[in-house]
Design brief:
about 120 residues; alpha/beta; Rossmann fold; 5 helices; about 20% strand
């Protein structure tokens, strides 16, 4: 079951994408990485992921601009906001997301959040 769970890491940092892809692939998830909102839309049309780890600030189309579209196109996809901007902690996006995590937190928190959400049917 776990091997079938698709996760998209949406971040404009190639290092963050590659690191999380390596970690999550090793944990048995199917992982795809994208660097902007347009690429997220393409993923949603092809094969919607169970979870999107979403950076709010990306070039071209960031997480803020694409958030409502993700919810509209793929209401079952869970969104974990993973941002370096503490100012969004009390934003409507943080409340609408399934989880909100700051990048400076312990990386174990993101793994735990993914694990918890992956268990939800």
């Amino acid at each position: 079951m776990k091997g079938k769970i698709k996760i998209v890491i949406a971040d404009d940092s190639p290092d963050i994408c590659q690191t999380w892809k390596d970690i999550l692939t090793e944990k048995g998830y199917a992982v795809e990485t994208v660097s902007n909102g347009y690429e997220i839309l393409a993923c949603l049309k092809e094969d919607p992921p169970r979870i999107i780890v979403l950076d709010l600030m990306m070039p071209e189309k960031g997480g803020i601009e694409i958030f409502a579209t993700i919810k509209a196109l793929s209401p079952d996809t869970k969104i974990i906001i993973y941002t370096g901007f503490k100012k969004y902690e009390d934003s409507p996006y943080a409340r609408m997301a399934d989880k909100f995590l700051l990048k400076d937190n312990d990386p174990g928190k993101l793994l735990q959040a993914i694990s918890e959400i992956a268990q939800i049917k």
